[in-house]
Amino acid sequence: PDTLLLLRLGADYGFPWIADRPATFWTSELQPDGFLWQKWLVWRFRDDLKIQQTPDFDSLTALLLNGAWPGPLPDDALAAAFQNLAELYLGIRPAATIGRVEIEPRLPAGWGKTRARVPYERGAIEVTYAFADDYADVGMADVSHELAVFFAYPLANGGFLRTQFSLVPGKHPQRIKLRRESDNRYRLETFEVP
C-alpha cells in the first residue's frame, strides 16, 4: 500500500512535491518499506543541499539519522537503505552472476579523498576516489576470478568520461587517471599501481 500511495501522489503532484514536503507526506501512520524509503532518499540526495554538502560519510549518516525520516524502519529495510546510499554516492553496482561491476561515483564535492570497501561475493571491491587529484583506484580482495569493470569518471561539468578494464586475481589495483589535453579535452589512462 505504501508504494501505491507513493505512485499515486507522484502521479497527482509530481515526485519533486513529495521530496519538498517529507513532513507532510509522512503524517499518516504509514510504515514504509525499504523500497519507498530509498526512493525518498534518492530525491533528498538530488535536491537537498545539506546532504550534498556533508563533509564525509559519517556526517551524512548522522544527518540522515537525525533528520526528517519517512517513518520507522525495520533493520533489514535500514540495511537496504544504506546499501542504496552506498550505490548512490560510491556508485558501485556489482553483478556477480556475470562477473562484472559498474562504477559511477557521485560524491559531494566536499568529501575529498574517499576510500570504500564494498562486499562482492566472498570478497570485496575496493575503491579510492581522489578526484581533486584527478585519479581513482579500483581493486579487489579475495575474489577468485577476473572481473570486468565499467567505470564512469565524474567531470566537473556534471558529465562522465567512461572506460572499461579488467581486474585479475593476484594483481595490483588499477588506477584511472584523468588527463587534460592541450586542446582542452580530457582522456582517461588506466594502469596498474603497486
Description of the structure:
This protein is α+β, with helices and mostly antiparallel strands and 194 residues long. The strands form 2 sheets. It has a 5-stranded antiparallel β-sheet with strand order 3-4-5-8-9, with no helix packed on it. Strands 1-2-6-7 form a 4-stranded mixed β-sheet. About 8% of the residues have low confidence. The radius of gyration is 19 Å and the shape is globular.
Give me some keywords for this one.
five-stranded antiparallel sheet, alpha+beta, 194 residues
Low-pLDDT residue spans = 22-31, 68-73
- Beta-strand fraction estimate: 25-35%
Approximately how much helix is present in the residues? 25-40%
**Helical stretch count?**
7
| Main beta sheet | 5 strands, antiparallel
User: What do the pLDDT scores average to?
Assistant: 75
Radius of gyration, CA atoms, in whole angstroms = 19 Å
Strand order of the largest sheet: 3-4-5-8-9
Extended strand count? 9
Write the layout of secondary structure elements.
Blueprint: H1 2-13, H2 15-20, H3 22-25, H4 34-47, H5 49-52, H6 57-66, H7 75-90, E1 92-95, E2 100-103, E3 114-120, E4 123-130, E5 135-141, E6 147-154, E7 160-167, E8 174-180, E9 186-192
Parallel strand pairs: 2-6
Antiparallel strand pairs: 1-2, 3-4, 4-5, 5-8, 6-7, 8-9
